[in-house]
Design a protein that fits this description.
Layout (H helix, E strand, L loop, with lengths): L5 E5 L7 E7 L13 H9 L3 E6 L14 H15 L6 E11 L1 H11 L12 E5 L11 H8 L5 H6 L13 E6 L8 H12 L4 E6 L22 H12 L7
Parallel strand pairs: 2-3, 2-4, 4-5, 5-6, 6-7
Antiparallel strand pairs: 1-3
Helix pairs in contact: 2-3
Length: 250
């Protein structure tokens, strides 16, 4: 494995000139979940969209130190790299989205809302957040807090990186989904973020499925009952992307 950060590119020739999504896998800022990386990029390709999995910095890369702001820096630098044209990739550099899962969803939200004083020019055009960690002060995932800021983080430090408190009118249109009984990252994270988007008149779509454990990813293989009901998120997201004018495939 390459040293983080590193970028895994999924830009087939037939998608030249199409938009691209930066995929941010979850893992509590301790690791990155494989099933939330390459399989998701391939799914985006099937929708006629380019993809890049960003393997951003995680806590083991900074032993004995607070991880923040390394992951946010990684995401910001990657967005600038894609938008500048320096990547050499044949993409639509004016349509760059971000798709994050769990702690990767927190990073995607931080990038989208301007946490860390992110200029508007350094934000994506669309965001997709899957069972995201949003708040570091309420209904929070303590493991992500500890990894990102350390166990002794102050309330002020936690508040500054609570994405429901940093939403503004420049936050991009957002698609969110969660499960109501997620016992790792409570559904209130998505509910509070959606409420913040509504207050700032940012377009969004939110889906809450009744059941499902944390970390479902594409939710394609879930036991004897077959396809998990939450797997419907992919078709709903695809329809949302069509509504945004980002898809050319049926």
């Amino acid at each position: 494995m390459s040293q983080r950060p590193w970028r895994e590119i999924f830009c087939p020739e037939e998608l030249a000139g199409r938009p691209i999504f930066i995929v941010l896998p979850g893992g509590g800022y301790h690791r990155q979940a494989d099933h939330e990386g390459a399989p998701v990029a391939h799914w985006l390709n099937s929708l006629g969209l380019n993809a890049m999995v960003l393997h951003y910095a995680v806590a083991p890369d900074y032993p004995g130190k607070a991880l923040h702001p390394a992951p946010l820096n990684d995401a910001q630098e990657t967005l600038r790299w894609l938008r500048s044209g320096e990547s050499g990739l044949e993409i639509d550099a004016e349509r760059i989205g971000v798709l994050g899962f769990s702690a990767g969803g927190h990073l995607a939200a931080a990038l989208s809302t301007g946490a860390g004083s992110t200029p508007t020019a350094d934000r994506p055009e669309l965001a997709v957040l899957a069972y995201p960690v949003i708040s570091l002060v309420s209904h929070c995932h303590q493991g992500s807090v500890n990894a990102l800021l350390g166990p002794e983080a102050t309330w002020e430090q936690r508040r500054a990186l609570s994405a429901e408190l940093t939403v503004d009118t420049d936050t991009p249109p957002t698609f969110l989904w969660h499960t109501a009984d997620d016992d790792a990252v409570p559904v209130e994270n998505s509910l509070d973020y959606a409420a913040a988007l509504a207050r700032h008149h940012v377009p969004f779509e939110l889906h809450v499925f009744p059941h499902g454990h944390h970390g479902l990813g594409l939710a394609l293989d879930e036991g004897e009952a077959g396809r998990h009901p939450a797997a419907e998120w992919t078709s709903r997201c695809a329809a949302w992307l069509s509504g945004q004018g980002w898809r050319t495939t049926a």
